[in-house]
Design goal:
Elements (H helix, E strand, L loop, with lengths): L7 E4 H4 E3 L13 E4 L3 E4 H5 L11 E3 L4 E3 L12 E3 L6 E3 L4 E5 L4 H8 L5 H7 L13 H4 L3 E4 L2 H29 L2
Helix pairs in contact: 3-6
Length: about 180
């Protein structure tokens, strides 16, 4: 049964660590991007061509790492925060904030960042910066973001339920799309 435990408020920095590992010697070549609508995706799949040339100073993004993209869009007014679920290690521009989490269920946190619950914190603690298409927030401020979480087992159960619902919706959309094209 969901909702039986107590929830506590923690700072993102207490459950996550910023990743500063650079792609020295260009060991990794797969450049990733963080799309508000498609999540983490290969840059070549998103733009239909290779954009990045020199990736030596890019951050290494391992499977299950989170990425914050400060690019503002209609569907992500403070930029999207998504998880690398591709099952590969790639690299991302230093314009992004890459972080890994400890002692929290990744899927639960992924769905938290798909909500708007964290927008108020961003609104109150950052600004749109010099560029109108980017949201500016200092790293130490970003990692002070409060996140309310249940105990670990309940996080996993909630994440699993939300994943199943998403998969069911995707399957129904696919079936409907195919039925309409007949």
């Amino acid at each position: 049964m969901l909702g039986t435990g107590t929830w506590e408020q923690r700072k993102l920095g207490n459950i996550a660590s910023k990743v500063n590992e650079k792609n020295r010697n260009s060991e990794y070549r797969t450049v990733l991007t963080n799309s508000a609508t498609k999540g983490i995706i290969r840059q070549t799949d998103y733009f239909d061509r290779k954009i990045a040339q020199n990736v030596e100073n890019y951050y290494i993004v391992r499977d299950q790492y989170f990425i914050y993209n400060p690019r503002i869009s209609v569907s992500a007014p403070y930029g999207p925060i998504r998880i690398n679920r591709l099952g590969i290690t790639g690299v991302m521009s230093p314009l992004y904030v890459v972080f890994s989490v400890n002692n929290i269920d990744n899927v639960f946190l992924e769905y938290f960042f798909k909500t708007s619950f964290w927008y108020k914190f961003m609104y109150e603690n950052g600004d749109s910066g010099a560029r109108a298409d980017r949201f500016a927030i200092k790293d130490n401020t970003f990692f002070s973001m409060p996140i309310t979480i249940p105990e670990t087992k309940e996080q996993a159960r909630i994440g699993k339920v939300l994943d199943r619902v998403d998969n069911l919706i995707a399957a129904n959309e696919y079936n409907l799309k195919n039925a309409l094209s007949i």
